[in-house]
Amino acid sequence: MTQRKSKLNRDEHGRESFPVIGMGGSAGSFHAFEKFFMHMPIKSGIAFVIVMHLDKSHVIDVAGILQPVTSMTIKEALDGVQIEPDHIYIIPPGKDMGIHNGQLLLMEAARLRGAHMSIDYFFQSLAEDQQSNAVAIIFSGMGADGETGVRMVKEKLGMVMVQEPGTAEFDSMPVTAIQTNMVDYILSPEEMPVKLIQYLNHPAIREAQPESDFTLNQTSYTHLQKILMLLRANTGHDFTLYKKSTIVRRIERRIAFHQLNDYVDYINFLRENPAEIMRLFNELLIGVTKFFRDRDAFEALKGRLYPLLAEKKENDPIRIWIAGCSTGEEAYSIAMLIIEHLDTFKMAKLPKLQIFATDLDPRAIDYARSASYFSNITSEISPERLDRFFIKVNEGYVVKKEVREMIVFAQHNLIKDAPFTRLDLLCCRNVLIYLTSELQKKIIPVFHYSLNPNGLLFLGPAESVGTFVDSFTSLDNKWKIFQRNEGAAALGNMLDFPFHVANQSHKNLTIHLPIKSLKSPLAETFHKILLESFTPTSLLLSERGDILYINGQTSRFMQINSGEAIFNIHRLAKDELKYALGNALHQAWEKKDKIEVPEIKVKDGNEVYVVGFRVDYITEVPLQDMLLVTFTDYGKLKKRRSDKGKGVDPTRQGAVEELEKELIYTKQQLHSTIEQMETSLEELKSTNEELQSTNEELQSTNEEALTTKEEMQSLNEELMTINLQYQNKAEELTQLNNDMKNLLDNTEIGTIFLDNQLNILRFTPQVTRLFNVIPGDVGRSITHIVSNFEYPSLEDAIKEVIETLVGKELEVSTKKDEWYNLRIMPYRTMDNFINGAVVTFTKITPVKAMQHKLVSLLDYARNMAGLLPDAALILDKDRKVLVANDRFLELFKLKEEEMVEQPFMEIVHNKWKTDKLDELLTSSDPDSVFMQQEFQGLGLRGFFVKIQEISRDENGKTLVSLVSFKTQE
């Protein structure tokens, strides 16, 4: 055995990092601790913390008991002490102990219903504080303390050892820990140190990368893919999108467990040992939970969930999905909360509660269905809830039937299987932390799709909805309670469900390769200068004239008017351009070609400018069916020099004015016509909008149809889930029926099951010897069936048993002189209701024959004893009186009923007050003895007592003996 030597690792606080071993046991495990430390090296670089069930009233010097077997420093833990390697710390009596940042913290022991789970308390604290450096060891002890702690340590990638139950003084704690299926080693105390140091010194454990620095090179990634391929081939489940750091750490622990060199050896080991593939699969699926885990989180959930449920009507179901339910504690916790709230409803008919609890691990689902938990749950559940929702069975608790019936447990894969829909609450705690961010981005939209409007999403404290903050409203940031928002949701992300992990790219790899940038700062600056200085003002428009993109200065061509802000070219274009631009846009759209307008005068302030524009219809993807308007500015309008000094004809001047007026009128008429055209265009636009609205409704209908399809798929999944559960129940029922049939057939006991009206429900084949029944008589009253024995009051006897609940037993004989023991008992259901009676017939003909034979033999023995001249008794093998002749009864003034079936030794001691016959009666080779005794009422009597053997069994033991009393003459 070598000492633990490793490079200096430090935790997040800068302290040296070393393994911390939590050791749990009862006060009777001292011997196991002695054996362990006797074989443990003094300098191992490990700290040990012993947690025992020690009561304040019993002062036990644990350190003094263990000090002779080890040279390590042993001390009783003090509040706030910093643990050090190569030290042993012992919990003080009557305390609970935790660990935080490497410091041991003491508190007064919390006792609930007499339960003191100090080992569970410390192991859970150890797992949270030390993570993968934690090791839990369970030694001898009574009860189930440590079972939950073992689960927590394994969840945090720690290691668990358990004492071999055969070597434990009390095996209850070791057996309970083993039943979790999370124990790494089951060894005797003296074998543990070797395995412990081998495991901790393995490079895969000693040189494990911190979570923050986790990387995976190409070679390791290839080996990992091979392992995932073997898992998929043998289990049907693909772990490609699970967090690589968690998978690698689990694999490394299996490598260290088997003391293999590297991934290559482990891959070969997997191929040669298929059972190891299932063990690795179970390791990857380790899910730890407990009743009301994070109690404050459930209190916060109540405050958000109860108002939502209060809005439910009588016919509205309450639908809840527990995704990743593990062994079922969380599902039952939610059920308890809902049931407690439903009791406050003042309705004639309460809403129906449907809880779907799913997990990938089939073993966990089977455990959850059994609803059987160890006694240590008393530290997690209040006494009131224990009394209301649980039944005490042996050393544990079973959830009551009415709670179990509300929950459907099923195996379900979040990645492949359709989700449950129309949910009021979706609880998925501590599942997403094991998935990659890419997979989380796919699953969160599925959760959004599954929830009802305002439905709640309940995640673990280290989880969130990521980038989907618009789809959910955070109701509690600390305990991660979210409410579904209405809106477009993420239906697009649902279209590729189920997610095909096989087609995922290598983007999940933490291999970072340098990527050469395709953009140059020089080119970007050059393009920017060209766009701003040398390209004309341009607009990108939709068919309706909505402006999608602007390039250049547009103040000369557009103006913003007061009123409603509408970003449309027909509203923003200046008056001089509006009509020409509108006509050009219309022609370009109709002809699917370009239209040019060369010169238009535009007034800008006090100046007049000449501009032109061109409208192009775009056919290139992705700007297909859009319009590009490009403006050209020709500068200011040049004014012609006026002819000064020349005369002007007044008549011509009037004609010009008239023409100007006519032109103004024409412009007004044109403007009116254009407005009418715009009105018609608006009506056409309105009609077009209606058509678009109709189209959107059709698209919405199509989306609803798609959603309905998804819901049908989900409903089908629910039906398949429920059908699977029914199949499992049917298989269990078939097995139970087979067992019951074989039991009844082999016991040769005739049984009839009757309801409260004495109608036959079922019967065993042996009953046909006593009643003339056939399978077609099921449902008929037993009073209509002819029996083969004489007992006229059978009907009255059965009714009496049903009414009084007191069983009846008697003997009856058939017409063929066969004797049966008739037993009538009330039929009790699992809910303790009386639902008829059970009548059983046990054949006792041989027993009756033996009784008759014994009576005949006793009569013979009595007659033979009467012929003897002396007082005599016949005794059986137990020295009980079988026969006393008349001479004996007369001699000692006794009655026969005082003697028969009574131990003769008691008569000698109690009535005769002597022990002179003890040696004679107990001797294996009896002879005779003379006895002289003063008898009350008889005076002094003397006689010879002699015992003679009458018969022996095959082993030589005396069966019947004769005791004769001959008086002294």
UniProtKB/TrEMBL annotation:
EC number of this enzyme: 2.1.1.80
Active site: S26, H53, D145
Superkingdom classification of source: Bacteria
CheR-type methyltransferase domain mapped to chain residues: 223-485
Reactions it catalyzes: L-glutamyl-[protein] + S-adenosyl-L-methionine = [protein]-L-glutamate 5-O-methyl ester + S-adenosyl-L-homocysteine
One GO CC term, this protein: cytoplasm
A Gene Ontology molecular function term of the record: phosphorelay response regulator activity
Family matches, as Gene3D superfamilies: Chemotaxis receptor methyltransferase CheR, N-terminal domain, Methylesterase CheB, C-terminal domain, PAS domain, Vaccinia Virus protein VP39
UniProt GO BP: chemotaxis; methylation
PANTHER family: CHEMOTAXIS PROTEIN METHYLTRANSFERASE (PTHR24422), PROTEIN-GLUTAMATE O-METHYLTRANSFERASE (PTHR24422:SF27)
Keywords associated with the record: Chemotaxis, Coiled coil, Hydrolase, Methyltransferase, S-adenosyl-L-methionine, Transferase
Protein name, UniProt field: protein-glutamate O-methyltransferase
EC top class, as a word: transferase
Biological classification of the source: Bacteria, Pseudomonadati, Bacteroidota, Sphingobacteriia, Sphingobacteriales
Sequence ranges assigned to domain CheB-type methylesterase in this UniProt record: 14-203
Coiled coil segments of this chain: 656-746
